[in-house]
Amino acid sequence: MPVWRPTTNWEHQEVFIIGGGDSLRHFDWSLLKDERTIGCNDAYKLGADICKLCVFGDVVWFQENESALAAYKGVVFTNAVRLYHTQLPWLWTLQRKPIGLSRSKLAWNGNTGATAVNLALILGANKIFLLGFDMHLAKDGKKNWHSQLSTRPKKSNYAKFLEGFLQLSIALKSGIFNCEIINVTDNSDLDLFQKVACAKFWDERRANACNSKLR
Question: Is this prediction's pTM over 0.85?
Answer without folding.
Answer: yes
